[in-house]
Amino acid sequence: MIRCVVIDDEPPALAILADYIGQVPFLALAGTTTDPIEGLTWVQQGRADLVFLDIQMPRLTGLQFLRLAGPRCRVVLTTAYPEYALDGFENDVVDYLLKPISFERFLKAAQKALALLAPVSATAPEPPPVPAAGAATSAANYLFVKGDAKNKFVRVDYADIRYVEGLNNYVLLHLPAERIITYQTLKELADTLPQPPFLRVHKSFIVSLDHVQAIDGNTLYVHDKLIPVSDTYRDALYQLVRGGRGGR
After folding, report:
1. Which domain range does residue 178 map to?
2. 150-186: pLDDT as tens digits
3. Is residue 12 domain-shared with residue 104, that is, in the same domain?
4. Confidence of residue 243 (pLDDT cuts 50, 70, 90)
5. CA distance linking residue 3 with residue 72, whole number of Å
6. How many structural domains is the chain composed of?
7. Distances (CA, A) of 81 to 94, 99, 168
8. Is residue 138 part of a domain?
């Protein structure tokens, strides 16, 4: 479970993000505040894994907060001002959300944070030991994708994804018993999926190495599908294979 703190000088913004956090199974709300000094204290006390941080605040701006907090937690910046995006990414933030923030865009940022924090969370001791370990392991092994209706999200286990096919602004996830189409670019999904086992091998394909049954030159055999490997991604593929990461 990823502990979240929301810091924003506007109470309505706090309420929206608190509600979004409550809808995501792998996030837990640890606190909200309009006072960035109070929020910084929480971070320094180790109360947060992830901070949703406004940039324009009195007393202490979001960028000043980043410099003071250092590497104690991950940060998602929230703001109505796109001109601060470069400053944010230069400070190694997880994501940059422009207000008004939709739940779909929020969920994408949460999935990015999960990919970064899940390996740490899985090994962190949290009481009670057995449930906490199980929860962390579960959180590290799936993602949510937008479904075919408004506010519908579908859980997909990483282990079930054989390969992903890009279709302009949509992606098609190929699973053992079904295919799921979702509004997202292949690059956006590639930034979310754990690597390995997932690897982009072509401008239109991401594969799970756990489902690759054979490699023949520039062709991958993934169950009954032949996936092309482009020259751009071939060296990275063979480096992983020679390093001992095989299919099952």
Report:
1. 155-242
2. 566 778 889 999 999 887 778 888 998 888 888 778 8
3. yes
4. low
5. 13
6. 2
7. 17, 8, 28
8. no
